[in-house]
UniProtKB/TrEMBL annotation:
Residues 597-616 have a biased composition (Basic and acidic residues). PANTHER family: CYTOCHROME C BIOGENESIS PROTEIN CCS1, CHLOROPLASTIC. Residues 79-560 form the ResB-like domain. Residues 1-40, 577-634 are annotated as: Disordered. Residues 1-33 have a biased composition (Low complexity). Keywords: Cytochrome c-type biogenesis, Membrane, Transmembrane, Transmembrane helix. The keyword Transmembrane helix applies. It comes from Streptomyces marokkonensis. It is a multi-pass membrane protein. Its main location: membrane. The chain crosses the membrane at residues 81-99, 135-157, 227-246, 506-524. This is Cytochrome c biogenesis protein ResB. InterPro entries: Cyt_c_bgen_Ccs1/CcsB/ResB, ResB-like_domain.
């Protein structure tokens, strides 16, 4: 028994002209018609390897509202327009990153307007100070959303139809496909087809028998990944829009021993989405800061770097919930009823006792939070006495102090900067003022900065601004018996950010799904394989295998070669194929005219007696349309 593998379809067709047909008369369809039919057959074999919309010839819409609406819808739902809208959305987000946004930092927006007389009004008119809520950005966003839906819905139904259908049958001429191989075997065609069907199903192909061939297809995950990617984009767009409309974010600075209740008036600053209602949508909870604990690297190149930042709090859910202790750390927020409480900052609050000229206490051991200026927590701020103070003449006044605090002072003669963030040598510098703080005028003012418009300086003996350095426990006496200030100690404060971002989980899931879908559409190839087994003119089974992929790839010939090699070994043999020299010609050619006795040298190898040499290793002439599959030849 022997098997042969060749790069062309075995021949055995009788030569000459069939009986009853005049010589030179065409016996089949015209050449142009046959070629067109073969092209149509090959096109059908490669059809529906993708769910991309078919390219149609340009066809101007008919006049009328319906025609123009249909034309506009086709343009909007085309992939070109979707990519253009996605590009415009990316370009539109650039101003939102470069220009101050009113929803993020209103102070920077006002500063930009004051410093730019021309650009400020222009940006206002274009909505560049609130890009993500502007009309033009929302229009791009909505059009992209509609375009994606218009692209995905028909492709999804088409893909479902392909899943419910079967791979198309084999083309008439498999030799025209880009990956092709063939061989002869003694097995019956039915046995070869059964073996091919079992092999392809084992390799997870969707396979079935159509006529004299087995049709198989694989790689549906590619198109599924493409659809998943686009659906994930829609999920991300919806999640992003939902989060922007219903989100809220607020910050609160809390000194040790103080508390916070989740109401609008308790926040230092607060911002929310357009559809968020602070009066009804804020989750009811409260918490109090019991202790803040921080440690730092004591030496080395990372000296002063925080090692531990944690805030110990007691919290309760609802109006009458029981208090529960917990610890909030950096990137480990407290989650309560959909809201998250993050630890975002830390600083110090000097504790002061202030008395007026008659010794009456007007500030009793109150802590005033100061804002840090550097990584070593050098801090500055203002101390204000708004009510209850009377000067030496008994007149009502207000006191104000510029405060500068360092947790680790370098010593006498050193600059007023901290050398370490921990409380190793705390020192407080105060400069005193009296008069009107301006806090009763009805305008919003910063509590961390003095408005000196209506304030007068306390003068020392040299006529200079009265100021002094204080250590914990020391007291400063104001000039002219105006009162005293005692530095009682230091308490720590922690800054918390309370946020609620609905839709963030969906946005994360959409991002992961988009990455997986994109990977599937890029690295998985959809391809088809056909195996045809028929009896040749000499009674021997001729097996043909061909493959077709959606795009040019070396994987299709490699996979076809692997399948052909396995099928070549697995196809059952039923009889021995005699050598070619022993097989008589079943179809004799018509007698040729008499020729001269002179030998005719056709260039073929001959034996010693002049007879043609039978060399089974000499391959047939290759078909110019055939590309043998790698690994199939043996």
């Amino acid at each position: 028994m022997s098997k042969t593998t060749t790069g062309k379809t075995p021949t055995g067709t009788p030569t000459g002209t069939p009986t009853g047909t005049p010589a030179g008369t065409p016996t089949g369809p015209p050449e142009g018609t046959a070629s067109a039919a073969e092209d149509q057959d090959l096109g059908a074999a490669g059809s529906q390897l993708s769910t991309a919309p078919k390219e149609e010839a340009p066809n101007l819409p008919s006049l009328g509202v319906i025609g123009w609406a249909r034309w506009f819808w086709r343009q909007l739902t085309s992939m070109r327009v979707a990519l253009l809208l996605l590009l415009l959305l990316s370009l539109g987000a650039i101003p939102g990153s470069l220009i101050p946004q009113s929803g993020v930092d209103e102070l920077k927006v006002e500063e930009f307007r004051e410093n730019h007389d021309v650009l400020g009004p222009l940006y206002d008119n274009l909505g560049l100070f609130h890009v993500y809520s502007s009309v033009w950005f929302s229009a791009i966003y909505i059009l992209l959303f509609v375009s994606l839906i218009g692209c995905i819905v028909p492709r999804t139904w088409q893909f479902v139809g392909q899943l419910r259908g079967r791979p198309p049958g084999a083309p008439r001429r498999l030799t025209r496909l880009p990956a092709y191989t063939t061989w002869r075997t003694a097995a019956e065609p039915e046995q070869v087809r059964e073996a091919a069907l079992a092999l392809l199903k084992k390799r997870r192909f969707r396979a079935h028998t159509v006529g004299d061939a087995v049709a198989a297809e694989k790689g549906y995950v590619r198109e599924a990944g493409n659809l998943v990617f686009h659906i994930a984009l829609i999920v991300m767009l919806i999640a992003f829009a939902w989060g922007q409309l219903f989100k809220y974010e607020g910050n609160k600075l809390i000194v040790e021993g103080d508390g916070f209740s989740n109401t609008l008036t308790q926040y230092d600053d607060f911002k929310s989405g357009n559809l968020f209602d602070p009066d009804h949508d804020l989750a009811p909870f409260s918490f109090s800061l019991k202790d803040f604990h921080g440690t730092y690297e004591p030496s080395g190149p990372n000296r002063g770097t925080p090692r531990i930042y944690e805030a110990k709090v007691d919290y309760s859910e609802g109006a009458y919930g029981d208090e529960k202790p917990t610890t909030i750390e950096v990137n480990e927020p407290l989650e309560i009823d959909g809201s998250k409480v993050y630890l975002v900052s830390h600083g110090y609050a000097p504790v002061l006792t202030i008395k007026d000229a008659k010794g009456n206490v007007v500030m009793d051991k109150e802590a005033t939070a100061l804002l840090p200026l550097d990584s070593n927590v050098t801090s500055s701020g203002a101390v204000m006495v708004r009510d209850g103070y009377r000067n030496a003449e008994g007149e009502k006044e207000q006191l104000g102090f510029n405060a500068f605090f360092v947790p680790t002072y370098g010593g006498e003669g050193s600059a007023m900067y901290s050398t370490f963030p921990a409380l190793l040598n705390p020192t407080l510098a105060l400069s005193a003022y009296h008069g009107d703080l301006g806090v009763d005028a009805g305008f919003a003012k910063s509590i961390y900065q003095l408005d000196k418009t209506n304030l007068e300086e306390f003068k020392d003996s040299d006529g200079e601004l009265f100021k002094k350095l204080l250590k914990p426990g020391e007291t400063m006496t104001l000039p002219n018996g105006a009162g005293t200030v005692t530095f009682d100690g230091v308490r720590e404060w922690a800054g918390f950010q309370v946020t609620e971002q609905p839709g963030s989980g969906w946005a994360l899931a959409g991002s992961v799904a988009a990455i997986l879908g994109l990977a599937g559409s890029l690295f998985i190839q959809r391809r088809r394989v056909w195996v045809r087994a028929v009896k040749g003119p000499d009674g021997v089974t001729v097996v043909e295998m061909a493959g077709l992929g959606r795009s040019e790839s070396a994987k299709v010939p490699e996979e076809l070669g692997d399948l052909a090699g396995v099928l070549y070994e697995q196809a059952p043999d039923t009889l021995e194929i005699p050598d070619a020299a022993e097989v008589p010609d079943e179809a004799e050619a018509p007698d040729a005219p008499d020729a001269p006795d002179a030998p005719h040298d056709d260039g073929a190898p001959k034996n010693d007696d002049g007879a043609p040499k039978n060399d089974d290793d000499t391959p047939d002439s290759p078909d110019t349309h055939v590309v043998p599959a790698e690994g199939a030849e043996k």
